[in-house]
Here is the input.
Amino acid sequence: MDEVPVVKCKGSIPNMNNKQEELYKILLLPIEKQKMDSYKIEEKVIHSGTKYGTTFDPDMSNIAIKFYSIIYGIEEEKLISKSEGFIKGDTMNASSPYYRPPRELTEQWDVDKHCLANFWILPMNIGRTPVRHLSEIQKLYCKHSKKSRIHDYMDVFLEFLNENIDYYFREYNKYFDELKVSKENFVDEFSQAHFLKKGYYEINSVKKIDKTTLRNGYDLWRNAIKERAREIATSDKWEELYDEFVNKQKSRIDLP
Here is the structure.
């Protein structure tokens, strides 16, 4: 079998060993569609097939499902199952509809945002479900709500989530139970479950982003993604992720 390309690490990142640094870089690679049973990690891109649905979406690709299964401790079959709509993949910082920078920067962002470090799981009706399929009440509380002026901004959504915690726990109790997140210790447990403590919170407050800075590019969002990648790569999940994405990758054969 041909040698599998690995992500090359130049220099060193503080507080990470070489394997953690390699994992960190994998978490930031863009994911692209390829017809295959599993996925293939190369130096600058991840190619992945999909077992979920009929349309390819990077945040529900095969490698994304594997990623969720490891960091959340949820079986892959459950994540893929149509009947388990309360745990489905979603892209965190996805778009900036009102402060878009130059087109070439947005085009690059549309590639870069589809990386594992920018993916998490949410109930379908908060994240994935198109607005046209939601009730008027659900439209107020989805992550991309225009009515509530959330517009898919992570910082706005996290703050809105905390302010409307009673509604979310009442409607999506199974989701919070799955993540072992309680209402009493919500911010601490939610940020820990999703690895958001470094990139999206300062102590127990959401890090707010001046949206007008997005006119100049997506660097603030990239920084948040990098912080989450760092948090995951140094967490108690890193060895399991490294084994899956590096060790098993070297012995995996995928047929197109």
About this structure: The mean pLDDT is 91. The radius of gyration is 18 Å. Residues 145 and 151 are 6 Å apart (CA to CA).
